[in-house]
Amino acid sequence: MAPGVVIGADVGGTYARLGWAELRPGQPLRVQGFRKYICADHPSLAAILCDYLQGLREGAAVPAVQHAVVAIAGLLDGDELLNANLAWPVSLSALRQQTGLETLELINDFAAVAQAMPHVAATDLHLLCGDESTTVASPALVLGPGTGLGVAVRLGGSPSAVLPSEAGHAALAAGTPLEQDVLRLLSQQHTHVDNERVLSGPGLMALYACLCELRGASVRWRSPAELVDAGRNGDLLARESLTTFCAWLGSLAGDLALTFGARAVYLTGGVTGHLAAELSQGDFQQRFLAKGGLAPALRQVPVYRVEHGELGVLGALAWHADRLPDNAT
Question: So what's the pLDDT on residue 1?
Fold first, then answer.
């Protein structure tokens, strides 16, 4: 690990977001040069990184760049990244060779999001339920439905420890008769129905399609944005899809909070931004707390919706900064 100028990248199934920071002792992290790429428009991750590097090197005001941390969805298996949602395969050795960077590290995307939490301003946190006065900050559960479903746990310490998780691929559990019906339909299509099969952007649309089938209706809406707009403008089936999604997400968040002993929960990801109003209307909160005799313990846990468009980039930079000698920032 080295100080100086570092690129932070946040790469998911749909977008790659990049920024840079100059790490200075005693100075807070500040993302600069933020840029968003559509992954499918580029032949490889290396092509995106090289394009960004070229832009930086052409800018006279940016110091020399030799280091990058890439927060990316998936699990590194030796040199290869295992991921079902990316637009292309990823090899760590190939990335290092093609970019020519002195150091390049891959970390789990939601480990980076968890790493970013201490750097998020209070104005970016919106309390959904729980006791905001709780002072114990860890373990903190970070849960984010987007192209997939990211999950990580921040354990604290110095440098802070983060537990990556593939809980998005754990089996989906139904908690109501309607959810059981949806799970039955999905089980007819897939040999393994995992959490992100419903609790993600594509999952929201799969949920809507299942409700259309159960209600004998035709599918009308083709994207989460269309579905949200329809639900807010009088389409009852779209509205039912949104409330069912929020309730199901609340149930999983409560399960994971109990599993990890979380003292705080943070909801991130593009879908939670789209559903900001619906997440505040009670279905999420009710199911988060519906854990029988352990409900009183969960009432103490603050649950926040996080509004911050650069979390993964910020977290990748924070991960690098935390591992510098003498914690340089």
Answer: 44
Cα separations in angstroms, 281 against 113, 121, 178, 210: 25, 24, 19, 23
Q: Which residues have a Cβ under 8 Å from the Cβ of 252 and sit 6 or more positions away?
A: 143, 173, 195, 199
Q: pTM of the predicted model, to two decimals?
A: 0.85
Instruction: Quote the number of domains for the chain.
Output: 2
Same domain assignment for residues 185 and 302? yes
Q: Which two tokens stand for residue 219?
A: 């599918």
Domain residue limits at 259:
167-306
User: Looking at the structure, do residues 214 and 90 belong to the same domain, yes or no?
Assistant: no
The whole-number pLDDT of residue 326 equals 56
- Report CA torsion sign: 135, 137, 139, 140: positive
Query: Strands 4-11 and 65-72: what pairing?
Result: parallel
pLDDT at 329: 47
266 found inside a domain: yes
Q: Does an H or E element contain 179, and which?
A: helix 177-189
Q: Side chain identity at 266, as an amino acid letter?
A: Y
The answer to whether residues 297 and 134 touch, using CB atoms and an 8 Å cutoff, is no
Reading phi first (left if > 0) and then psi (alpha if -120 to 50, else beta), residue 261 is in left
Whether 301 and 312 map to the same domain: the answer is no
| CB contact at 8 A, 227 and 242 | yes
Task: Enumerate residues 6+ apart whose C-beta is below 8 A from 285.
Answer: 128, 129, 250, 303
Contact 315, 6 (CB under 8 A): no
Same domain, 173 and 274: yes
CB proximity list for 120: less than 8 A, separation 6 or greater: 306, 308, 311, 314
